[in-house]
Design brief:
Blueprint lengths: L1 H9 L9 H12 L3 E3 L6 E3 L5 E4 L4 E4 L3 H16 L8 H4 L7 E12 L3 E12 L7 E9 L7 H16 L14
Antiparallel strand pairs: 1-4, 2-3, 5-6, 6-7
Length: 181
């Protein structure tokens, strides 16, 4: 029925089950123009002294949706972060140096279930708008006690910022270096 489709799309239901990993894969496919990445369990392995022994390279797996559908979903997910239910959670991101060069999007949802508590979730992505720089997709679920604590969308925004700080070098200064003697 139309109501069940609307309920599913809103994220406000008790019947739909979604794991953070499957949500992150969905977000990755949407950020990746509809191509689902091959899931990676081990990113890298380092020796005790910190030498890189093995690095797993990301690779495409299969087409999940048409690129045009992914583009439309990405725009809707960007609206959730810019104007919707995750806008306050992404305030730090909007004030960061990445806000112009990285598009972020996501989907929020919540449910209160007897015996489980208040649960909210966020799936989303951070994708540089140009070049082949690394993107991130993630799924976050938080279960709260009687009162809401930190929202999943806030945790996700901080994870995206931390990832970008570690992978995207700061822009080169446009002002000449000052040499002091």
């Amino acid at each position: 029925s139309v109501m069940s489709i609307a309920e599913l799309a809103s994220g406000f239901n008790e019947k739909t089950r979604l794991t953070p990993v499957s949500g992150a894969l969905m977000a990755a496919a949407i950020a990746g123009d509809g191509t689902l990445p091959r899931p990676i369990l081990v990113d890298s392995i380092c020796s005790v002294d910190g030498r890189l022994i093995f690095r797993n390279a990301p690779s495409p797996w299969k087409r999940a949706v048409h690129w045009d559908t992914a583009m439309q979903l990405r725009q809707m997910m960007r609206s959730v972060v810019a104007y919707g239910t995750a806008r306050r959670s992404f305030r730090n991101f909007k004030q960061s140096r990445f806000s112009r060069d990285v598009e972020c999007g996501g989907k929020t949802g919540s449910v209160t279930k007897t015996g489980l508590g208040k649960t909210d979730w966020f799936i989303g992505f951070g994708k540089p708008v140009s070049g082949n720089k690394s993107a991130i997709a993630l799924g976050v679920v938080t279960i709260h006690d009687e009162y809401w604590t930190v929202h999943s969308s806030y945790i996700a925004s901080e994870m995206i910022l931390r990832y970008l700080r570690q992978t995207v070098p700061p822009p080169e200064s446009s002002s000449p270096a000052i040499v002091r003697r």
